[in-house]
Amino acid sequence: MEEKKVAHAPQRVRFEIRRRILTVLSVFDLTPRMRRVTFTTDMSGFASPSPDDHIKLFFGKEANGEDCMRDYTPRYFDIERGFLVIDFALHEHGIATGWARSAKVGDTLEIAGPRGSVVMPDDFDYYLLIGDETALPAIGRRLETLRPDVPVTVICIVQNVAEVQTFQTRAALNIQWVYRAGTSGDDGQLAHVALESWKQPAGEGFVWIAAEAKAARALKTFMLTERNHPAAWLKSSGYWVEGAAGASDK
């Protein structure tokens, strides 16, 4: 008897963790605060089926001898051609930012993962994606893979108009760029204002949020309590923590 398919059911996948040494092929600034680094390596066995997967990047050792690691989203990858693209949001400080600012062709970097994926099926009636610069690689990947004409609203909080990116998608995209420059609110407040004017489409939707931890929590609470969005169809992640050493380096 054929098993009945459950709508909106996530698929959880685990992978064997493998470390790889990457070599820089090219470095390119997408915007003043986003640097794209393309690497080459043996990509056999690599898998990243979900747009918001993350891999570990290793930047030597901490003072206590433990690995100094940061999480990043694979922006593009091609297993057969053996390349991987990572977009680095550039901050004022941080070991990953420092590495990305000085990266040049021939440099190497060690990575591991992804450890696993949670793959959401593309069977929702609409999508709402909210994030800051650190979320843009995952947002870009999701937009590129959504089915044709499905409504998707994106709210991106960035520093200024110079940080605007373009994305390829077959979906019916409505994107709103929210700028910090010249405002007094934090990211959560800025996104909240944008959400207040968002007209929630009919049907069942998937909401994805990734930003500074406090902002992500506030936006999640707003969607659950003010918009009564089902918790099972919402994923919220704090990609960094304001004021925490090393935590704002994604």
Explain what this protein looks like in three dimensions:
With 250 residues, the chain is of the alpha/beta class. It is 17% helix and 38% strand. The protein is built from four helices and 14 strands. The strands form three sheets. Strands 5-4-8-2-3-7-6 form a seven-stranded antiparallel sheet. The protein has a five-stranded parallel sheet with strand order 12-11-10-13-14, with helices on both faces. A two-stranded antiparallel ribbon has the order 1-9. It is globular, with a radius of gyration of 18 Å. It starts with 10 loop residues before the first strand and ends in a 10-residue tail after the last strand. The model has no long low-confidence stretch (mean pLDDT 93).
